[in-house]
Each structure stands twice: as C-alpha cells, then as structure tokens.
Amino acid sequence: CKTDATTNDKKPNQLTHRVMVGNVPLGGGAPVVVQSMLNAPANDVDANLAQIRELAAAGCEVVRMAIPRRDCLDAFQSVCEQSPLPVVADVHFDAQIAVEAARRGAAKLRINPGNIGGLAKTDAVLDAAGEAGIPIRIGVNAGSLDQDLAARRDLTLPQKLAASAAGYVEYCEGRGFHDLVVSAKAHDVMTTVRTYRQLSRDLPHIPLHIGITEAGTQFQGVIKSASGLGILLEEGIGDTMRISLTDDPVVEMRACWALLSALDLRRRGPEIISCPTCGRCQVNLIELAKQVESNLMSTTKPIKVAVMGCVVNGPGEARDADIGVACGAGVGVVFKHGEVQRKVEEHAIVDVLMEEIGKL
Ligand code: SF4
C-alpha cells in the first residue's frame, strides 16, 4: 500500500515507475508536472503554437492537443516540430490516429481503451508507442466502463474505475509495454479522490495523472479542483496534474501553481498575503491588493508580498514577507526583508512596492 502518508515519510509518488514525456520526467519522485490542454482549432498550427507559448510563459510543462480527425494529423505534426513544450496527442475513437500521432512526433499518447475500438486496436497503438519510445496515458471514465464492470453491484464506482484501469494496465504490461500513466477522473470530487486512492493502492508502480474533470467555470472549477487535488497531493498521490476549467487554459496554469505553492510542493511566482479588510482599514486595500497582484502576474520569482490593512496584523505579516506594506490612515509603511524602508502616501504604495520588488 502506498497511501499511508501519515505513517510513511516516503511519499507514494516516489515509488512509481518514471516515464519521460519529451524531456520532462514524470513519476518516480519527480516534481508534480503541470499540464494543460490546447483549445485552439485542431488544424490551426499558428493558433496552437501561440497558445503553447502563452502557456509555457505561464509555467506549463506539458501540453495536450486533441486530434479529432485524420486530416488534423499534418497540423499536429507541425505543432510538435515547433513546440517548445512536449505535446501529448489526445485521441478518441480512431486507433489509427494514435498510431500516426506516435510516428509524427507525439511526446505521449492519451487514449481511452474503452472507446478506441477494443484491445485488438490497442495493440497497434502499443506497438507504435513502443517503436517511438513514448509513454501512453490510459484515461478511463465512468461513461466508458466495460459493461460487465458497470453492471457489478459488489463494487463502488471508484472501485469499478480503478478495476477498469488495472485491467488495461495488466493487458499492456502483458504485451511488454510498461511506460504507462493512468488517469480516472470524475466530475465529482470525492468520487475522484476515492478512485485515485484505490488506484494508488492497486497500481503502486504506475504514475498517476490527476484532475477533476469537467470541474466547471473558474470559481467553482478552482474550488473543486483545489479541494480534490489538494487531498490527493497531500497524500502523495499524483505525478502530473491538470486543473480543468471552462476558461482560458492560462488560468489553469495560475490555479495549478497557486495550489502547488499552497501545499508547499513547488513554487513559481509570487504569493500575495493580504488581509480581508475590516472596519479598521483606512485605505482602499482591496484595490491595492488587486493592483499588486495584476502587476505581478508575469513574475516567476517565488516571492512573498504582504498587503495589509492596519497595525493589528500588518507589521507582523509585512515583516515576515519578502516585501510588505502595513497601511494606516491614507498611508503605508513599506517593509523589505523585515526592515522598514519608508512611509508612503496611499497613491504611491503600489509603485513603491513594485520598485522594491524590482530590486530584489
Ligand atoms: Fe482588519 Fe487590520 Fe486585520 Fe486587515 S489587518 S483585517 S484591517 S484588523
């Protein structure tokens, strides 16, 4: 069992087999890989490359691209050839597309054996991936469970999903293919958590791609994803993650990195420590904090910036941060590495904070 993180300091994901997605290590104790999926039209090379560059700048490490039809394979190949990030081919229904994608530069394949045409069709995909030296993610979900498994009343849905994935893994390994990653996502948070716990017990050697699927628009999607993935990551479950949002994929990146930072697993970009404000606050702190956040959007330095409303908690938090401001009546006292720098008028606070951050 690899899930008992409370009694075993060794995190479970250190125990999995490691695969390489292009030049990105996944599993075997590697840092949790952050990924997203392109949503530009599948045959528009320039639009996909532009989105990849935007995602890379936001901290994305692996991108996935859908190949919905065979006539999109040329575009997929061009994207792979020019992409700064490894590109995963996302294929449903047509095994021949997956075979071709492996030959045309995919860094990994994502298939669902439940809809790719049965195990016989999977064989050709395994052979193509083996020849290309790339891993395959097996992604199962409740909608495409084997009928026999779906009908069983002695198993819960998480147990069925995990059993389905385990069956495919056994088949692939039986054919000598071992570079596997597994996902079994659901839109329901606790179903997903229980499924991944089961997977982590049943397939301790397989790297897991975790996520809450169809999590919704930004607000709900981030909360559902953070609660589910937060539980799993804290238990050491999960080697690569996607936060799926009905939004710009760049927002997914911000959410992923904020979650990894909050869990102290990986850090990228600033953390803003700001108070909720109350009746003691005598500046427009909400606006100040939003401006600081917006100005730091493209910063990759993992710095802590405190933006605090008054003397109750302000000086303490501002001192503990790399840069901070504790506000009073229309003014702010700026701190840097615990030392007071200067007192500034409210209108100048953001500029002074940015100036000091620039000097770090
Ligand atoms: Fe209120 Fe001051 Fe606390 Fe902010 S720091 S919530 S203004 S008491």
Automatic annotation (TrEMBL):
Taxonomically, which superkingdom? Bacteria
Q: Where does [4Fe-4S] cluster bind?
A: 275, 278, 310, 317
Q: Which UniProt keywords apply?
A: 4Fe-4S, Iron, Iron-sulfur, Isoprene biosynthesis, Metal-binding, Oxidoreductase
Reaction equations catalysed:
(2E)-4-hydroxy-3-methylbut-2-enyl diphosphate + oxidized [flavodoxin] + H2O + 2 H(+) = 2-C-methyl-D-erythritol 2,4-cyclic diphosphate + reduced [flavodoxin]
Q: Specify the pathway.
A: Isoprenoid biosynthesis; isopentenyl diphosphate biosynthesis via DXP pathway; isopentenyl diphosphate from 1-deoxy-D-xylulose 5-phosphate: step 5/6
What's its EC? 1.17.7.3
GO molecular-function term, one example from the UniProt record: 4-hydroxy-3-methylbut-2-enyl-diphosphate synthase activity (flavodoxin)
Q: Which cofactor does it need?
A: [4Fe-4S] cluster
Coiled-coil residue spans: none
Give the family from UniProt.
Answer: Belongs to the IspG family.
Its annotated function is as follows: Converts 2C-methyl-D-erythritol 2,4-cyclodiphosphate (ME-2,4cPP) into 1-hydroxy-2-methyl-2-(E)-butenyl 4-diphosphate.
List the NCBIfam families. ispG_gcpE, PRK00366.1
What is the protein name stated in its UniProt record? 4-hydroxy-3-methylbut-2-en-1-yl diphosphate synthase (flavodoxin)
Q: What is the lineage of its organism?
A: Bacteria, Bacillati, Actinomycetota, Coriobacteriia, Eggerthellales
